[in-house]
Amino acid sequence: MIELRPVVFVIGILLTILAVAMVIPAMVDIAVGHPDWQVFLVAAFVTLFVGVSMVLTTRTSLRRFTVRQAFLMTNLAWIVIAVFGALPFQFSELELNPVDAFFESMSGVTTTGSTIIVGLDFAAPGILLWRAILQWLGGIGIIVMAVAILPMLQIGGMQMFRVEAFDADKVLPRAAQIAGGIAIIYVFLTGMAVLVLWSLGMSGFDAVAHAMTAIATGGFSTYDASVGHFDNAGIDWAISVIMVLGSVPFVLYLRVVRGDLQTVFADTQVRWFLSIVFISVGLVALWLYYTDLMALPDALRYSTFNVISVMTGSGFATADFGRWGSFVVTIMFLLMFIGGCAGSTTCGIKIFRLQVLYATAEAQIHRLMQPSGVFFPYYNRKPIPDAVATSVMSFFFLFATCFALLAVALGLTGLDFVTAVSGAATAISNVGPGLGEIIGPAGNFATLPDSSKLLLCLGMLLGRLELFTVLILLAPAFWRG
Amino acid sequence: MIELRPVVFVIGILLTILAVAMVIPAMVDIAVGHPDWQVFLVAAFVTLFVGVSMVLTTRTSLRRFTVRQAFLMTNLAWIVIAVFGALPFQFSELELNPVDAFFESMSGVTTTGSTIIVGLDFAAPGILLWRAILQWLGGIGIIVMAVAILPMLQIGGMQMFRVEAFDADKVLPRAAQIAGGIAIIYVFLTGMAVLVLWSLGMSGFDAVAHAMTAIATGGFSTYDASVGHFDNAGIDWAISVIMVLGSVPFVLYLRVVRGDLQTVFADTQVRWFLSIVFISVGLVALWLYYTDLMALPDALRYSTFNVISVMTGSGFATADFGRWGSFVVTIMFLLMFIGGCAGSTTCGIKIFRLQVLYATAEAQIHRLMQPSGVFFPYYNRKPIPDAVATSVMSFFFLFATCFALLAVALGLTGLDFVTAVSGAATAISNVGPGLGEIIGPAGNFATLPDSSKLLLCLGMLLGRLELFTVLILLAPAFWRG
Predict the structure, then answer these.
(1) Which of A156, B155, B270, B431: CA 20 to 30 A from B3?
(2) Domain spans of chain B, in order of start
(3) Interface test with A, best of B327, B375, B376 (most A CBs within 10 A)
(4) pTM: predicted TM-score of the whole model, two decimal places
C-alpha cells in the first residue's frame, strides 16, 4: 500500500494555487460587467475548499518522496487540476457538458490547444482569460516537472538533464533556486511578449492572452480564426519568435542571464532544433512559392509561423495549411511528432531524443562495418550512457505504440482515417489541431463523439507526462509495492 | 578500395539462374502460341551472356567474403536482378517504359506485389508466369539471405538467429545443408499449395501462379481483381493458410520434418505472430458484423484473408477494405508495418523485433519502479544481449525515419496525403497495395508519376534489405576502406 498523505498534500497546494488563479478572470468579468464572475468565484471557493482541506488533513513533517509516490503524485496532479480547471467551462454561460469541459481543461493544462468551443470571438473575457491562464500555468508546471521530477524518475532519458549536473557548472547551486529562477524568467518573457504584441497593435487583453499561450506553446487564441484573425505580419513574426523562445531549455536562460551566451549557442539540442525549423520552413516556403500559391515574402511569413506552430506543438494557425498541397500536409504531420527541446514547454518526442537515436543508429552502422571495433554514441560531446540510450529507445517505441493504439481506438469511435491518425498524433504530441476537414487548422473538435474526446484526453495526458509516468501505473508490480 | 571480384562472381551466378528461369515463360508462350516467347528467349540470352561473362572473368579461388564485400554484394544482387528481371516487361507486348518495367520487376523480386499493369486478365501467360517466378525466386532468396547473410552481418538484431545456434541443437550441421533443406521445403510447400488450389477449382496455370506468389507472401495475381476474381471461399481460406505458412521461420520446418513439433509451438515468435493475427482478424470481423456490412461467416472469411494478406505483406485482395470503414483502414495501415517472423518470406518490422522492443520497454518500466533493481529483457526464455537490443531499437528508429522521409519525398512528387503515407508504408514493408482511391486494394500504381515510382522502388529495396544493408553504403567510412 502506497502512503498517500504526501501526495494529497502536494495536490492540495496545487489546487490552492489554481483557486487563486480563478479569481483573476472573476475580476475581469466584474470589470466588464459579465455575470460569469459568479461562476469563477464559486469555482474558486470550491477549489480552495478542497485544496485547503487536502493540505490541512495531510500536513506532516516534510519528508522525501518515494519513487512510487512521485509517480502517483505526478499523474494525479495533472488529472485533478484538469478536473477542477473544467468547472468554469461547465458552469459559465458556455454551459459545456462535462466531457467537453474536461476536454477543454485538459487541452489547456497540457498546453495542447485543441478546442471544442465555437464562437470564441463572442465569448466573455473571463472564460478567454481562463483558457490562457490554464495553458500558462501548465507551461511553467511542465518546465518545473522536466527540471525537477522527470530527471529524478529517469523518464525516457531525462536523467541526462539532472539538476545535479548544474552543480558542477555552478550556475545556481540548489534546485529550489533553479525553479525560482526559471519562474522569474517565464514571467519576464511573458511580460516582454505582452509588450511586443501590444505595441504591434493587439488590444491589451489579446496581447496578454496570446503572450501567455505562445510562451507556453499552448495555442489557445481568443478568436476562432486564431492568430489569422489579426492578419498582421508583425504579429505573425513576433509570435513565431515567442514560440521558439518557449521551445528551448529554460535552464539555458539562467546561463544567458549570467552572460554565458556561448554555451547556449554551443548547445547541440538548440542547434538541432533551429536547424530542423530552418530546413522545414525553407522547404515549405519554397513549395508555396514554386506552386504559385504565394509570393516569396508571404510564403516565408506563413510557412515560418505555421511550421513553428505545429512543430513546437503550439497549434496557432494563420492559414489553413491543409489547402497548401499534400507535401505540406505530410511534412506538417511528421513535424507534429518532433516537438522542441527538453526542459521547455513543448511536448512530442523532443529534439534530444532524436539526437540520441541518431547517434545510436550511427554508432550501430559503424559497428556493422567493423564488428571488432568499439563505437560510442555521443551527445553534446559526451558519450551517451547505455542506460540513457535504452531509455530513449524504449520511449520511442512506446511513443509509436501508444500513437498506433490511440489511432486504432479513435478509428473504433467512428472517426475517418485522417482524423483518427492525425488526432492521435496531435493529442499525444500536445499540438492542437490535426489534419483534414474536421479537426484541421480550420476545424474544431466540437463535433467529435464523447468517446473520441475522452481518448484524446488520455492521449494528451500520456504525451504530456512522457508516457512512462502514466504507463507505469498499468504494471501490477507498481501496486504490489 | 573494395576488391569487387568475388561480388561480381556471385552476381554472375545469380544472373545465370535468372536466365534459366526466363526459359520457363518462353516455353509457356510457345505452348499457347504467343509471340512473346521470343522476348523471353532474347532476354534469357542477354542475361545468360552477362551472367556467364561475370562468372568467367572473376573466377578465383573461393575465399571468405569480407564484411564490406558482403554488404556490397547483397545490395548489388537485388538491384541487378531487378534490372534484368525487367527486360521481359519492357520488350513484351505490354511495352512498359523502363521505369514501369523496373518498378514491376523490383516489386516482384522484393515480394512486394504492387503492380502498374492494368489488364492482367488479358495478359499473355508468359508474362503472368514471369511475375510469379520473380516473386517465388525473391522469396527463397530472402529466406536464404535471412538465414545465412543477415545474421552474419548482425543486421537489426538478426544475430539472434545465427546458423551456429543450430549446431548446438544438431538439427542439421552445416549452413549449406540448412539452405538446401529450406529450399526443398520451399519447393514442397509450393507443390502442395498448387495441388490444393487446383483441387479447389483453379486452373492449373492459376494454381501454379498463385501458389508461387502466396508462399512468397508476394501478392502478384493473374487477375486485376486479385484473388477476389475467383469469389471462392475455399480458395480464400487456402491462400490464407499458405500466406501464414510463408510467414513463419523456415528453419522451424526443418524441426517439423524431424518430428519436433513441440519446439515449433513453443517458439514465442510464432505464438506472437498467430496471436496478433487472431486478435486483428477478430476485431475486423466483429466490426464487419456489427456495422451490418456482412454476415458472420463472410465477415470471418474476408477479414481473415485481408488481414493476413496485409500483415504478412502479401498484398492479395478479395475485397476493397477501403470501404469497410475508418477503423479497418486504420488497423490495416498499422498491420502493414508488422510483417511476419524472421527467416520467413515476409518483410516489415517483424515479430521478433516487436518482442525485443516490448521486453526492453517492460524491463525499463520495472527499472523505473526500482532504480536499484536489475532487470533483463528476455526473448524465448533467454536474456537479450545488450548488443541485440540496441541493434533492434536502432532498426526501429531507422524504420520510422525512412518511412517518414519517404512519405515526405512522395508528397513532394505530388501525391495526396493518404497515398503518400500509405505508399511509403506499403513500399518499405513490401506489402503491395496502399490505401485510398489511387493505390488502395482496388487501385493500381500505374498512374503515379515516374518520380514516385522510383522512390517506391528505393523504399522496397530499403525494406527488403532491412535498412542497414542499404544505409551503410551512405557512410563515407564504408568507401574509405
Answers:
(1) B155
(2) 387-479
(3) B327
(4) 0.94
